[in-house]
Write a structure and sequence with these properties.
371 residues, alpha/beta, Nucleotidyltransferase, domain 5, 3 domains, 5-stranded mixed β-sheet, 49% helix, Transpos_IS110, Transp_IS110-like_N, transposase activity, Transposase_20
Amino acid sequence: MPEIVTIGLDIAKNVFQLHGVDRSGKIVLRKALRRSQVPGFFSALPPCLIGLEACATAHHWARTLMAFGHEVRLIPPAYVKPYLRRQKNDAADAAAICEAVTRPSMRFVPVKSPQQQSTLMLHRARDLLIGQRTALINALRGHFAELGIVVAQGARNTRQLIALIHDNASPDLPATARIALQPLAAMLVEIEAQIARLDKAILAAHRSDPVSTRLAGIPGIGPIVASCLSASVPDASLFHGSREFAAYLGLVPRQPSTGGKPRLGSISKMGNRHLCKLLVVGAHAALYSLKSGKTRTALADWARSLLAKKPFKVVAVALANKIARSAWAVMARSTAYQPGEHGSRRAGGLIDSELRLFAPQGNSVGTVMMR
């Protein structure tokens, strides 16, 4: 076999497509492999550069191929698309990956460890259960409302409805309706218990991770946000700066600029939506405490001054941007968060109010993308 320098590997459930080129860029390999054949083929192949799309199972295959001595780079699928010629099929995808992985300006996804992926599984499982809990609560409230039974909003107030279901002597709930709603109530109680178990597991993962414990010192970041950040961003130093990290998360405005005139729009849905949501929710909680006036730090003064002229939720998103930048500094510099005093700037802390959150250059996409 001729010397293979670069391989584009299009992974799937069972059939994997390979596209290899030599040093001159000439195609020397076009091959389809079954899943069971992949380890044997690459273990016998001399070390080369292998590109994969950062999709399902990509991190597992990256770790497997790296164990054979190969250099593996994961590429966001959206960045492979421009290199795809005409019709889409496995062979064309592999060729596009092979072309994209050699581009000097290409952005890559760092390979996550099994522990980092396991921590993210805790978060994804928790989100799924919370969604199911919300659906069950809405179903119970809707069914009880049909019978004229309404309780205050909030998950904890649903306990009153569950108590009515278990109260066989209650005349307000017909026996047939009780039979229909008992399975929903039982599922809701079980989901609550499972969410509590996942919360304990996330807290244990947070306490065992030094990066996560440092992140928890930032206002608006607790164990859930900190552990998710630590697991999602294996190497924050690969971002050129805090602006790029905030742009990766999606906490910068859309920029429809042209003709040398910068124009900033609203916050888009680009970036890591899950982390963006967590940071915005955390910023809401931090903003409630900062606006009280008892805290005298540069961050608190900045938040209060902005609240005087902007809506609360707009300020919360801007605060989430600052929190993300502080998180980048803590992760990239391996330092603990130090809240700056009024009018001062400390290493690892938040930058003072002269920082322009939504400057035009802040909308650049990070050098490294995370999946």
